[in-house]
Amino acid sequence: MGLAAAAADATGASVDQLTETYQAHYRSLLRLAALLLDDIASCEDVVQEAFIRVHAARRRVREPEKTLAYLRQTVVNLSRSTLRRRILGLRLLPKPMPDMASAEEGAYDALERDQLKTALRGLQRRQREVLVLRYYLDLTEAQVAEVLGISVGSVKAYGSRGLAALRTLMESGDD
């Protein structure tokens, strides 16, 4: 390891690295926040605040390659804080429909997405977080455990219970 590399390790993540991470992962972090909050304005605020906090603490990031993991964890934690502060339920903002082959397909897909979002909100907080991180972001159980600060066994338990509850909620919504 050269002197320049040792100096970079001693100072944590660089501003350039954070800028590159921001450009590459902003949208995925915004989608993560949207699955936990489902209010676009709050999602944007949470993601921006996460980048600000990680930027402010960049010198403490011992392993710069884990910057994205720190950002994900910060987004999850800030989403929790946002939800705790809310008294009233969240309002869904209409989202533009993607280009579809027919109006019927688009309406059906939107209905399924809305049903899934509603069912996700019906889960316990931890179950929802585990399912979103595991299946939406496609993280491993170990990565989910690290982001949430829980054991891998807890991730498996929350995931299993969450899927069972989600299945029940989705089936009851078909009636």
TrEMBL record:
Domain RNA polymerase sigma-70 region as annotated: residue spans: 22-86
Record carries keyword Transcription regulation: yes
InterPro entries per UniProt: RNA_pol_sigma-70-like (IPR039425), RNA_pol_sigma-70_dom (IPR014284), RNA_pol_sigma-E_actinobac (IPR014325), RNA_pol_sigma70_r2 (IPR007627), RNA_pol_sigma70_r4_t2 (IPR013249), RNA_pol_sigma_r2 (IPR013325), RNA_pol_sigma_r3/r4-like (IPR013324), WH-like_DNA-bd_sf (IPR036388)
Domain RNA polymerase sigma factor 70 region 4 type: 114-166
A Pfam family reported for this protein in Swiss-Prot or TrEMBL: Sigma70_r2
Gene Ontology BP annotations: DNA-templated transcription initiation
Keywords assigned by UniProt, alphabetized: DNA-binding, Sigma factor, Transcription, Transcription regulation
Keyword Transcription: yes
A GO molecular-function descriptor: sigma factor activity
Domain of life: Bacteria
Family the UniProt entry places it in: Belongs to the sigma-70 factor family. ECF subfamily.
NCBIfam families, A to Z: SigE-fam_strep (TIGR02983), sigma70-ECF (TIGR02937)
PANTHER family with a match to the protein in the record: ECF RNA POLYMERASE SIGMA FACTOR SIGM (PTHR43133:SF50), RNA POLYMERASE ECF-TYPE SIGMA FACTO (PTHR43133)
Protein name listed in UniProt: SigE family RNA polymerase sigma factor
Originating species: Kitasatospora camelliae
